[in-house]
Amino acid sequence: MENLTMDKIVNYAKNYGFVFQGSDIYGGLANSWDYGPLGTLLKENIRNAWKKRFVEENRYNYGLDSAIIMNPNVWVASGHVASFADPLIDCLKCKSRYRADKLIEDFTNGEITADGWSNEEIEKYIKDNHLTCPTCKSSEFTPIRKFNLLFETKIGVVDDSKNIVYLRGETAQGIFVNFKNIERAMRAKIPFGVCQTGKAFRNEITPGNFIFRTREFEQMEMEFFCKPGTDLEWFKYWKDYCVNFLHDLGLDDDKLRMRDHAKEELAFYSKATTDIEFLFPMGWGELWGIADRTDYDLGVHEKHSGQDLKYLDPDTHEKYLPYVIEPSVGIDRLLLAILCNSYSNEILEDNTEREVLRIKYALAPYKVNILPLIKKNHSEKAEELFTLLSKHFSTSYDESGSIGKRYRRADAIGTPFCVTIDDETMNNGTVTVRNRDTMAQDVVKIEDLVNYINDKIQF
Ligand code: ATP
Predict the structure, then answer these.
(1) Which structural domain range is residue 97 located in?
(2) Which residues line ligand 1 (CB under 6 A)?
(3) Protein residue closest via CA to atom 19 of ligand 1
(4) Which pLDDT belongs to residue 1?
(5) Sign of torsion, CA 329 335 337 341?
(6) For 27, left (φ over 0), alpha (ψ -120 to 50), or beta?
(7) Are strands 216-226 and 192-201 parallel, antiparallel or unpaired?
(8) What's the pLDDT at 157?
(9) Whole-number Å distance between alpha carbons of 86 and 108
(10) pLDDT at res. 162
């Protein structure tokens, strides 16, 4: 849709029960969001699609669900305690606080990213290009300071610094520390991947743009362990795999682009990194980061834990630390991309307006909506049908308002099929099935209904 604004999406998400302001009745908590009934269903469908594609349908991969709170040494070893930090800069005049690299990214509409730049390089760019404070337009800034993103908390009953732990800043570390467990328990041979979804926490300096950047979010990550030397081939394999997945989720080609990190932008341990970016209403933004992380992570955990994390190839008897390819995507960002990509406001032939979420059927929160044409005549049969269909797919029931209004409500939340129960149903055992996209109607026998819908909603 042309000119889709973030405000429009935020209002849409709130009005239809996808995403609400967090702690709303207390005036909210800045940048915290709660997923409502439809958001919960959509999120679950995205998570399931990812699990199906990355774990169930890929013969190399396994699943995992590791703890959010881990031994703090994990985060010391991984480097997060020392250097999981963003560059913080304050406007001297109005005191607004910014992430300095994002100031540059916003200034250049995402054309330049300052990932991997030193503080001095960022400060120089801001000065040379006369960047000003987005709030008050002053060009006077403080020097850059590093701000650590890990959330600290404490465990145990004694208020003692020994008990400081961290909320995980990414799900990936839970996978690295389980590498040997999974290899052993699953008799896994290199190459293999481990996938997990779950909450991650970052004390972001500038959360915002709705659910694009929040302090609490959910990631879907895979660490793919492979033999050094084969890593760049696997890097390409997983990049293609991720892009295909996004296409299958229905994201438009012209809203997706790949951005390879230039050499000077790469993290010191990374051999190659590509971001898949999506064109959000506020501009291009990272959706999915894919990185060749070499043997950095297993190497630091081996050193700090004192455990041998090398892999012994049972065929060649070679012993080595595997290299790792990591595709990491946030569900919240992906959900936002899917909403932005699918939402449209159409003018129909009769000049009426129709709000419709043209989301892939497999992702739609409800697959089918049951509508008794006249409540007093048809609701008993409609309830029977609800009981039947809801055993197979997520089903909603709507008996209030004119049939036209009910169709519109279902279109607006992306329900692919509306099933109307009328006198024909009572007399002949058939229902009318209306399609969201074409608005065409089919007459279907009740006994064929499950297959009729099932065939069309598979991912
Ligand atoms: P950014 O540069 O936007 O801060 P990042 O490069 O730090 O992101 P990664 O650490 O690579 O992000 O995290 C992997 C994925 O997790 C991102 O591509 C994004 O989809 C998601 N993600 C990261 N930070 C957030 C956040 N604060 N809120 C929502 N999703 C996030």
Answers:
(1) 85-148
(2) 170, 202, 204, 213-214, 217, 219, 286-289, 328-330, 332-333
(3) 330
(4) 55
(5) positive
(6) left
(7) antiparallel
(8) 78
(9) 19
(10) 65
Q: How far is the CA of 406 from the centre of ligand 1 (A)?
A: 38
Look at residue 360 and tell me if it is in a domain: no
Rounded distance from Cα 330 to ligand 1 centre (Å): 7
CA 354 to centroid of ligand 1, rounded, Å? 34
The answer as to whether 264 is a domain residue is: yes
Output the pLDDT for position 117: 87
Best probe residue, ligand 1, of 101, 245, 284, 286 (max atoms within 8 Å of C-beta): 286
Spacing, Cα 50 to ligand 1 middle (Å): 17
CA of 67 to the centre of ligand 1 (A): 20
Q: Where are the alpha helices (DSSP H) in 16-111?
A: 37-51, 72-78, 80-83, 100-107
Same domain, yes or no: 27 and 166: yes
Query: What's the CATH number where 94 sits?
Result: 3.30.40.230
Q: How far is the CA of 28 from the centre of ligand 1 (A)?
A: 23
Phi, psi of 378 (to 5 degrees): -120, 0
State the CB neighbour count (10 A cutoff) for residue 47.
Answer: 17
CATH number at residue 30: 3.30.930.10
Residue 173 lies in a domain: yes
Could you tell me if 75 and 166 are in contact, meaning their C-beta atoms sit under 8 angstroms apart?
yes
Mutate to test the pocket of ligand 1, among 333, 336, 338 (most ligand atoms within 8 A of CB): 333
Q: Which of 31, 219, 257 for a ligand 1 pocket mutation test, highest count of atoms within 8 Å of Cβ?
A: 219
Number of folded domains that form the chain: 3
Mean pLDDT in order along the chain per 10 residues (459 residues): 87 98 94 97 98 97 98 96 92 93 89 86 94 94 94 82 88 98 98 98 94 98 98 98 98 97 90 97 96 98 98 97 98 98 94 95 98 95 97 97 96 98 96 97 97 94
| Closest ligand 1 atom to Cα of 212 | 29
Same domain for 196 and 332?
A: yes
Model confidence, pTM? 0.94
DSSP E strands in 144-228: the ranges are 145-148, 151-154, 164-167, 192-201, 216-226
